[in-house]
Amino acid sequence: MSRVKVNGLPNNKMDLCYEALNGSCGKYVRLYSVHIPMLIAVMLITFVTVIGNLLVIISIGHFKQLHTPTNQLILSLALCDFLLGLFVMPLSAARSIQGCWYFGDFLCKLHTCIDITLSTASIFHLVSVSAERCCAVCCPLTYHSCIGFPTVLVMLSTSWLIPAIFAYVITFFELNLQGGKDFYETHVRCVGGCHVFFSHGPAVVTSLVSFYIPGFVIIGIYSRIYMVAQKQARSISHQLNQLRKCYSSRSTRRQAQKATITIAIVVGVFLVCWTPFFLCNILNPFIGYATPPMLIDALVWLGYVNSTLNPFIYAFMYSWFRKAVRIIVTGEIFQHNSSRKPLYL
To answer: Which of 31, 91, 178, 212 is deepest in the core (most CB within 10 A)?
Structure first.
């Protein structure tokens, strides 16, 4: 960035993050008509992400009726989104608004590590949820023997530990710079910056591990679920004469199908939100890092929006979530035995 524009006019003297230091990063200078809406937008996204996912966490954690294997996975996913909104988004907002990082190199690495951990953990959770839904739809008779809380605990441990270890090794051992450290030191590194830089090989490996491989696994699982569900629907259509006898089991099946559709929407939203960033991440080293930093920031925030939208998906699809939120907001949650209130019949 050789020139910046102040109030829409070119300015040959760049505004710097640290005016008194040599090698300082350049500061973003925007019109107030752009700066203020952008500030409001990132603050709103952060606030809604924290509050929305906190409501999901309280709902599933408090009400006994919601303590199911599927909901435990959703609870952990909501915790992941909540932590992203609480610890990652505020610092990312400060960096995105000004283009400067004033919190030191160690906190930059820690922030990057937590960001990669939570983003990767999200899709690992979705792989676990997809596998659980596949078992529920494809093997309903053996579901309870296969998917119990011990199995869910293994899924959750895997979904958290692997991303955390992967992110720590990539960030603190600087494996992301392998093969491109000279370019990073010469053309990217500056005082007051916190750049998430990946050279060619690490960009491919990171994108594959964090997004593409688990993404294709999820798509494969849901393709299998769709085919089995279609087959079951055709079978059920031949048994309508047993409607009364089968009402209870059909009601249970409808709940399972609704849960599957909801998780499919969650997965779809995740892929739509994160695909542009990971596509850019894997291509950027091969096009000479020509992608503008502001565009990368915008794609990162599009990915963050996924964490904002998940609670709204639950609210739209699940009446139990809407009822739980009403109980929480009105203070009924503090009443005696409120944890045993029926949220659905």
So the answer is: 91
